[in-house]
## 1
Amino acid sequence: MFQFIIDKPAQWFKSRYKLDEFTHLITEKKVPVHKHSFWYYLGGTTLILFITQIITGILLLFYYKPTAERAFESVKFIMTKVEFGWLIRSIHSWSANLMVAAAFIHLFSVFFLRSYRRPRELTWVTGAFLFFLCLGFGFTGYLLPWNTLAFFATKVGTQIAGTVPFFGGYIRTILRGGEEVTDATLGRFFSFHVIILPLVTLALLGVHLFMVQIQGMSEPISQENKPNKKYIPFLPDFLLRDAVAWVLMLGLLTTLSVYFPWELGAKADPFASAPAGIKPEWYFMFMFQTLKFIPSKIFAFDGEVLGILAFGFAGFLMVMVPFWDIWARRNKSNWFITLMGIFAIIYIVTLTVLGYVLPAK
Amino acid sequence: MRMINMTYVNVKVKSQKAKPKLKTQNFKFYALPFLFFSFFLFPFYFIPIALADQTNTCMLCHQSLDGNLKVSVEEIKNDVHFKRGLSCVACHGGDSNKEDMAQAMDATKGFIARPARNDIPNFCARCHSNPDFMRAYNPNIPMDQLTKYNTSQHGKLNMQGDGKVAVCTSCHGFHGIRPKTDPLSKTYLTNIPKLCSSCHSDKEYMKPYNIATNQMEEYVQSVHGVALLIKGDRAAPACNSCHGSHDAILPRTSSVGNVCAQCHSLQRDLFIKSPHKTAHEKLNLPECEVCHGNHKILPAKDEMVGVESPAICLNCHDKNSAGYETAGLMRESLETLKTKINTANNLAQEANKLGMEVSDAEFEINEAHNSLTKARSYVHSFSATLVKDITRQGVDTANKACQQGLGAIKEFNFRRKGYLFSVVIILLIAGLLYLKIRELERRHSQDKP
């Protein structure tokens, strides 16, 4: 009976459209099985969290009002009056954070496994840009409830963006929609968060997934020349395993949302002085803390500008790694690249922890 | 001192300028710095030079004298009169330009060394009650001080020749008089209790007048004293707020209510309409003071109302009287509302601890508190019905808050149950998926040759 319900419509479509060219990307795809297979599921986890974001985001849009006057009240209304509004908002906030975390892990796992090597350079590049978009979602979404912490964190964040050499002033003005963080900023962040970033992300995600499907999963260098390699079909075997991860992720999201509902805080007051200890979201903390540690002047240069340039350069190196990692191009894992990855992780974790542990000035 | 010296500097500069020996080529050399300094010293030219007019002989001598004749330059410099251009001769007469003592203190030039104590009010009033003169200096301050003073207890005793009673200088000082807006002034609001008590708390000094000397002792314990002297609340009353300043008198019994009404107008309005008004008039009782006291007015508490000790209603109302019943009913209404607010508060806090959003309940609790405050004011109507009407509104609001608190707790329990249910479903789905994977794995192993 169940098979009949699936088969009949499938046949109906097949008789009219040449779907085989697309369906074989799923039906014929094989996924290698080895000791590093676990990391394959991180991409799917990030994807399911993104889908959760879209669904809960659309539900929140039913009630959210993107104006400085009503944004806070509308979120409060969602949390107190709308049936299951508290759950939707909490899931949206928690899944956003888990998505960034999953994207971080996915990025580093791909990096350490050298999966970016030929012929998957562009898959890596699109993935890296998707990661940046993820951070963009976080940055723009943080302001939307218009609470005190978000308001001042955005003020600091856009101020930092303003120190970028040459274009900083323009970037800050474009982001803020003026000189200060105002209603105009909220409007811009809102349209970035719900229109511009999702459209770009969906397009890029489509390309990313399409490339993953046509090229298949990358095998680690250590596994490539092994005899008796094992594979499982993508459909249904791998997808079912992925589904288990998705369902468990849903359980984690529900647990976090029920036991640690995302707080709303106090409404932003643009005329109030900034509260002590303004902190950005955890995924920006390592950059924020670095800028705090950098002296204001390094020789004749502005310390903050140098810090931003350094992060920009690190980001550029990350995006371009498939093109400058000459060892990976020859199917070899070099210790230097591994060391760079480990250093990056230690640096990010240490600076993030310091950001939370050190007393606010 | 600095001003005086500066004036001397100016004099020197002027004398240098007058020298005809300056050569033309050196003129610019001297003129430029001269013009430069003159520009910055320009404002000082307008400093009244009555005291330091080249040779203020009064200051030159009196600053170096001892005892009563000593005049402190530091004090004079901060004196409001000096700052406005009035120097020694403005009050004492004479001629401060003369170096010869006899000429400087020439009685024909109106010199008065020290006015007689009883004459001081009239002495100061020469200017302060002269509108034409005052307009030239400070038209903002009142000019009826003498008239008021003469109506005050101080003024009356002064006119009778009392040599100890307060005159202008007793409160304002003489050579270092500062405006009352200056925190260093003795008449600055927060300094007034100390100023009045400097005489009124002095048992020896006040002995001839046979009045109490514990006003300050009581005032510092009062709600007003704490507000003014400890919290620095300048809206709180000092001695002069009730007694007046230049026209300081003991308020009459009948005017006590009006004095308190300067701030507590609602309570006064309610009191006037209450049965207590007539009763107090008949018995010649000082209205507010009967229940609240005078200098030692402690924060009003609900315990003051009712039929159980320490309720002050019991001081006048016997059991079975109408007043006794009203007192009991008013207290009961207040207690009912307080209990309700307390319950609502506990529920909201409990829900809040559970992580629930309770700002709506908190808003209602705040509203109920407002009703309680209003009801406490309406106690002055001494109408059990009015107080009950207000507390009933408060109870309704507090009930709403209770419902919201309970609703939040109920919602919390629902969420927990819903969570458990969803976890069971999630685990079930995960289990089924796992079984399906195992089945596929078995099938794959069977398919292998």
## 2
Amino acid sequence: MAIIAKPVRGDPAQEKAWLGAIAQGDHRAFEALYKEFAPRVFRFVVRMIRDESKAEEVVNDVMVEIWKNAGLFEGRSSASTWILSIARFRALNAVRGKKLDTTDIDEATNIADGQEGLAEITDRYAQRKLLKTAIEHLSQAHREVLELTFFHGLNCKEIAQIVERPENTVKTRMFHAKKRLAPILEGMGLAGAA
Amino acid sequence: MNKDEAKNLLPWYAVGALEDDEAQAVEVFLNISPELQQELAQLRVLGDAVAEVGEDEPVFRSELINDALARIETVEQVKPTRTPIVEASMKAQEGGFIAWLRDTLVGGWQESPGGARLAMVVQFGFILALGVVLLTPTGMDVPPGPADGGVLVGADGAPGQGPEITLSFNPDVTVGAMMDVINDIGGQIVAGPSTQGIYTVRLTDADEQQLNEIVAKLREDTTAIRFVRKKRDN
């Protein structure tokens, strides 16, 4: 079976090597890691807090924290997990007291349900657009699991570490996210059992 | 693993994030279950859609790296705790050098014929003798002065008081042009360049308003200046 999708995950061994070098004050390793991770961290954070300029601040705060604490990274998790955990913590702190974009998950279904004659939308582009809109209207917690899986290419255990929830919770969130999106996917001719 | 467990793991199978044994177990069910095959087809579309969702969103500005590089200059790193990662990194560096030394000296020596080995010993002795002669003091000191080899070097701990800025120059800026910029603002290099080419420049006796005007002026000079900012501890 072919592996599908196209997560951005890089080379885990290289990423750990960068962190090891950064711990010893290697600026070039920091630059390399920054170029690899800053855009990923930015996407993750901006999708959480919906504030571009604050997200930029968070990214650099995260990268400086990596520089400072790389010597504490023990390699028991992947570099991606460690870095995105820091990013999530920083992002939540940045918007402390402000309600995150946590649209009720039912809205995703409403978007699907609200499309009269969904099954009749045969235009591929329109279907795709509808699916993306529905993903954006999932709750932050459900969207986060989709994002960390399909964009960042992380496994269930890594996601559980980042969101600080048990693995089963991650699986449950994935299940519900798929279930909410199922009507749209089925409308695209992809009947399934989500 | 049963079929339901395989189904639960399918999203992570889809992105290649499962361990080999888990992936193989999922494939066992995938090969015999049309339902799971259908689910995988859905995940393919879903995965692509998730990746595309951010395409309309703001893009990260790569120039922000300059700010991060300036900030790490002022941050004290937590000392490495000899974690496995640090150990591996140190060994890789040591191992690389030792391997190179071994390959260069021992490997080359063993592969060389007897006559060549003798010639190498004579050459080594000659280089050693030359080094001794050149390094022996002759009473002539090199006069102190500004570096003239294309590198602008700061004098750490230069006297005087005033606010400080950090700045770096574009790669094609000459030493003379750098000096012109620093002289124009009445500055004095007190540290640098760092490994990133960042200088710390003291603006002797400048007040806050003058400091702001100088920083604003330097920011306009994009042909020479890569970035400039006030030091945090001013």
